Amino acid sequence: MANPLLSVVIPVFNEEGLISTLVQRTTDAVQTITEDYEIICVDDGSRDQTLAKLLAARASNPRLKVLVLSRNFGHQAAYTAGLHAAKGQYVAMMDGDLQDPPELLARMYESLQQDQYDIAYGHRTDRAEGWVRQTLIKSFHSVFRNFSQLEEADNVGNFSMLNQRALQAFLSLNEKNRYLPGLRSFIGFRQVPVPYARQARHDGTVPKMSYKRLFALALDAVFSFSSLPIKICLYTGLFGMIICLAGGIWALISKLTGVAPFGWSSLELSIYFVGCIQLLFLGILGEYVSRIYRENQNRPLYFIQTYFNG
To answer: What does the entry list under GO cellular component (predicted)?
Structure first.
């Protein structure tokens, strides 16, 4: 059987309430592009009826394929599993919570066809989320843009479409600590943004990506694509040396001029300050060491339990 024209990879985790709408909207959107397609839903270890509903939807649409992971390996790993399974000449990535509108896939495909680009990615011009979440995400993207030197990774997510040339380059990156928007920007090729407003979840509930998971993903991005943490250590250390030098000069002058020396409170605050700086540096170094250790372990990103694709 010939490879399809378009593959759409969608990771899902405990999304039983969205599966019917997700599959229907995605199918309708893809069929405006071509009848030669496949939709690969990656069940990332769901514990509800997500898998059952996916299989029920597949019964009426054999172009829907279901890749079941052996447990929850995380969003980025689930995407990677789906990308390795995709056979399309063009491969799209889309979140399974419908915050990324599948109707935008047609515009991405047109961009790759008319302008001869290799990658079309969704650029978020607005977000239908709470102000706290928006503020944190915008702050991260601002820091990441300024220190990673990856311009295409600014205010973007996983929502994108790649041709086979870009996809093969993308899949050749095998690191375990994965931030897919950063990796997609890193490989280069001709990339074009497709602006859109990121929508709220279709079911009205809070996003499945908790603040803890968002923070972990942000750390992976910063430590993988930026030297900012090490620079913080360097500049803080230099600043501390200047403060210590100034303090030493002041202590010497105070002794010579008879000015009363600093009391115990100043001494204790100085000790606590230096101790906190040391702990901060140890934490930053620990993050690097843990990531180096994980890379050297070279464990697989995921294990496939079943692939319903026949």
So the answer is: plasma membrane
Contact assessment for residue 40 and residue 68, using Cβ atoms and an 8 Å cutoff: no
Q: For residues 261 and 112, which has the higher predicted lDDT (pLDDT)?
A: 112
CATH classification code of 6-210+301-308: 3.90.550.10
pTM of the predicted structure, to 2 decimals: 0.68
Closest by CA position to 11, among listed 78, 97, 74: 78
3-state secondary structure of 1: coil
**Contacting residues for 87 by C-beta, under 8 A, at least 6 apart:** 3, 4, 7, 38
Q: How many CA atoms lie within 13 A of 253 on its CB side?
A: 6
Going from N- to C-terminal start, the domains of the chain cover 6-210+301-308, 228-297
| 121, 194 Cβ separation under 8 angstroms | yes
For 76-101, the pLDDT digits (tens) are 888 889 999 999 899 999 988 888 88
